[in-house]
Each structure stands twice: as structure tokens, then as C-alpha cells.
Specification:
- The chain has 297 residues and is of the alpha/beta class.
- The chain folds into two domains: 83 residues, Arc Repressor Mutant, subunit A, CATH 1.10.10.10; 161 residues, 3-Layer(aba) Sandwich (Rossmann fold).
- The protein is 56% helix and 10% strand.
- The protein has 14 helices and seven strands.
- A five-stranded parallel beta sheet has the order 4-3-5-6-7, sandwiched between helices.
- Helix 2 crosses helix 5, helix 8 crosses helix 13 and helix 9 packs parallel to helix 13.
- The radius of gyration is 21 Å and the shape is globular.
Length: 297
């Protein structure tokens, strides 16, 4: 079971409200070359698109109207008119000229900091716009009911996995994090229907995490993925998927930019679980404060 809606053509689409540009960016790498031509024009000229008919946009991009409609459906919109309305709203709320600011060799450190902070703010906002409320609620429900939770993340995602573990134990989840591929598949083989595998991978294509998911699913476990790509192998395998939406710049890959957005999602899950497990969470926090106080000077 996956958490995406399905279009009449059988394609997965985004359900969440919010930024049309963020939704296009989130699925861009999974689009066909023809649809990418339309996506490129919309991403680069959103102010112009709001004034174009679907016929005019088709002529400008040398694509069929059906291609434009297909893109609209892939990002969860009923049609081109809904996309135009969404774009018009975005342009009013947030001027586009600052979104893709690049760091220059002539920038001083304060300018670098301003651009990095701005980029992170945009990444968080775009991620919020593509988040699906139902997926968040289902994730909290699955984690809350799980007898044990195994968090799998390697490489740059490993610190995110460790942060998840650091937060989830506070609400009383019986969880552990593994970044070692051998321990991942070993523990996955010991799962059952009361277990949850939580895989974190920006690309959704990490072989180790995918292998752990395969083993976990064979053992009967439920699976949750945190990734940025809707058609990645990890997203397709997961029972529930949470997506981030970030942009790449000259000195920062998407994976680096995604970290802040991923941490925000983990924070949201932690607070959601805390609300469900209020009494246990408060008792655990008190115990933690007592033992941690001895670690401070």
C-alpha cells in the first residue's frame, strides 16, 4: 500500500495543497523528456505562464496540450487552470528573483550566510508545500503502534537517522538506528508484522537501504520512507512515504540542502508522537533531564 493518489492513467500524483513549483521540482527527475520541456518553461517563467492559455503554452514549448495536462495531473492538479491559479498565488506571496540566488566568489561571509539561510528557508517552505497530511498522520500511527522500529540510513543520511533515534526514544519508542549495511539486513530479517522499518535516503536509490527494506518486507514488517523522489525504488516499496523538496546550487547538492527539511519532518513526527503519548513522553523527559543534569558542569 502506498500513500499516493492515482490518476486516471494509473500514475501516482501528489495530494497535498501548496506550491505548484515545489511539486514540479519534487518530481522533475522522474518526468519524461517531453514533460520536462514544459516543466522547465513553467519553472523558469511562472509569471508569464499565468497569462498563457494551454494552447499558447503548448505552442511555445512545442508540446501537445495533452502533455501539459499530464504534468498537471502528475502534480495532483485537476487541470491547467488550477495550475495557473496556484502559480499566480505563489508569485504574489513570494517574489521569484531571489529563489535561485547563487553564491559568488565575490561574496563576503555575511552574504554567503544570507544566501545559505535563504536557501534553507525556501527548502523548508517547499517541503511543507509538498507534505501530505494523511501520510504524516499515518506515519505517526504506524510508529506509535509498532512493537519495534528500526531506522536505516547510510552516508549523509546517517546523521538524520541518528537524530530520529535521539528524538523517538524520548516518546518511548522501542527503536534503534543502523548505518552499517550488515546490521541493517540482519535486524530486518528478525522483524515481523509488528515491526516498522524507517528508511531515510534523499535519492531513494541507496542499495543498502533498499536491500534492508526488501528483507523487512519479506519478514512482514511495515515500511516508511523519507526521501525526495516520488518514483525512487525506496518510495515505490514503502507503505508510506514522506517527501522533501530542495534545490541544488553550485556548491550545495540537493542531498545537503535536504538535511534541514528532513530534520523538520523528524521534528514534526516527534511532536506528533508526543501528543499521542503525552503522559509517557513527559515522564521520560523528566527521567532524561535528571540523568543529563549530571553531565553538565
Amino acid at each position: 500500500m502506498n500513500d499516493q493518489n492515482t490518476s486516471p492513467s494509473g500514475e501516482n500524483v501528489k495530494k497535498s495543497p501548496g506550491s505548484g513549483l515545489a511539486r514540479i521540482h519534487a518530481i522533475y527527475n522522474d518526468l519524461s523528456p517531453k514533460i520536462q520541456i514544459v516543466a522547465d518553461h513553467i519553472l523558469n517563467h511562472p509569471q508569464d505562464v499565468v497569462h498563457l492559455s494551454i494552447t499558447e503554452l503548448a505552442e511555445m514549448t512545442k508540446c501537445a496540450e495533452a502533455t501539459i495536462f499530464r504534468l498537471c495531473r502528475l502534480i495532483g492538479m485537476k487541470g491547467y487552470q488550477e495550475l495557473k491559479i496556484t502559480l499566480a498565488s505563489e508569485i504574489v506571496k513570494q517574489p521569484m528573483q531571489n529563489i535561485h540566488e547563487e553564491v559568488s566568489s565575490e561574496d563576503n561571509m555575511m552574504q554567503v550566510a544570507q544566501k545559505i539561510f535563504h536557501s534553507n528557508i525556501i527548502g523548508i517552505t517547499d517541503t511543507l508545500n509538498v507534505l501530505d497530511a494523511g501520510s504524516l498522520e499515518k506515519t505517526v500511527e504506524m510508529l506509535d503502534k509498532a512493537k519495534n522500529v528500526y531506522i536505516y540510513a547510510v552516508g549523509g543520511s546517517a546523521p538524520i537517522g541518528l537524530d530520529s533515534y535521539h528524538k523517538f526514544i524520548r516518546v518511548g519508542l522501542n527503536c534503534i538506528v543502523h548505518s552499517d549495511p550488515h546490521l541493517q539486513v540482519m535486524t530486518a530479517s528478525l522483524m515481523n508484522s509488528e515491526s516498522v522499518a524507517f528508511g531515510i535516503s534523499h535519492s531513494g536509490s541507496n542499495k543498502d537501504v533498499i536491500e534492508a527494506f526488501k528483507v523487512a518486507k519479506r519478514a512482514g514488517a511495515q515500511t516508511i520512507a523519507l526521501t525526495s523522489y516520488t518514483k525512487s525504488p525506496l518510495a515505490k516499496m514503502a507503505d508510506v512515504t514522506l517527501y522533501t523538496s530542495t534545490k541544488e546550487t553550485s556548491f550545495r547538492t540537493e542531498a545537503i540542502s535536504a538535511r534541514i527539511a528532513q530534520l523538520c519532518i523528524i521534528d514534526a513526527l516527534y511532536v506528533g508522537l508526543s501528543l499521542v503519548r503525552q503522559e509517557q513522553t513527559l515522564a521520560n523527559l523528566q527521567k532524561i533531564r535528571e540523568v543529563i543534569s549530571g553531565k553538565r558542569v
